[in-house]
Amino acid sequence: MALKKSKEILKFDKLENKEFVGIDIDEKALQKAKEVFAHSKNKPLFLHKNALHNVSRANFNITETDKLIIVGNPPYNDKTSIAQSHLKDKQSIIIDSNLKARDIGISFLNSYAMLKADYICILHPLSYLIKKTNFNALKAFSNNYRLIDSTIISSKEFCKDSKGYFPIIIGLYKRDNKGMDYDFIYNFTFTTIEHKSFRLNDFDFIARYIDKYPNKKKTQEHVAMFYTLRDINALARSKTFMQKADDNNIIYVTKEKYSLYCYIDVFKMQLEHIPYYFGNCDILIDYDKFKALESHFVKASEKRVLSLEIENYFKELLGVHYED
Known about the structure:
The chain is of the alpha+beta class and 324 residues long. Helices cover 27% and strands 17% of the residues. The chain contains 12 helices and 13 strands. The protein has helices at 7-10, 27-36, 104-114, 127-130, 132-136, 139-142, 182-186, 232-237, 258-269, 287-292, 294-303, 308-318, and strands at 21-24, 45-48, 69-72, 119-125, 145-154, 167-175, 190-191, 197-198, 204-205, 224-227, 241-242, 250-253, 284-285. The strands form 5 sheets. The chain has a 4-stranded mixed β-sheet. It has a 3-stranded antiparallel β-sheet with strand order 11-10-12. Strands 1-2 form a two-stranded parallel ribbon. α9 (258-269) packs across α11 (294-303). The protein is elongated, with a radius of gyration of 23 Å.
């Protein structure tokens, strides 16, 4: 594991009579786990159960007084995401009503809070934390836990043949009555397995200056049409300027905002220089430097030719994160 060994977690190394419980809804996975631990002196108790149904310590053979550390890699599936939508909703499981969420991984994190684990070490998409909508869905979890250590890795580690990669965080959380709010995450220093570090607060984002979603009711007069925006990874898959209207996904661009959408169009031309760990972020921008090069971005978008000034802009914007 890429995490540093926290001094706090070492306290549990001295506990005697440790007991291990493995829970999975997949019988084949449980059988494989049993084979791995076949010759272990301290074999885990393996339970073939749905970990999101009847969530309680008693149901999982854990007493209320047990010190509890949860380690895992839960499944995730954002039902609202456009990507791979044809694969979604084909497998459903029973989930306790108080745990239902747009993403099954969020349901798992909230279930850990119900079990009142002392520590949680878990892999999950970084988007759970850095996307405010996702973070707000984690209230049962975030109100009671605090991120104390983490490492970001690429989903490429698990799906090398995937069409696109996204950042996964290996997060170590400690139960804490202070919990964490989005401001805590916004100022948290994330570290990647490549030894790069960043804070969201280090950057400015395009969402401050434009409409990201369809705005037909808001905007009547327009000079262009643009496809709905989500994050950087979505930009890689989607269109930018549109010739024909699609009311479900169209942003109507006013004359005043046209150059900013040209900027996004040019940003897409620079995606090869953007590291995977920014994939779930909004599009980055240095607004003052953009304004100084505004005509360059418009020309680059319309003519599909980048000037040296624009190339230097992106190198300065990304700094140590710029990928050659």
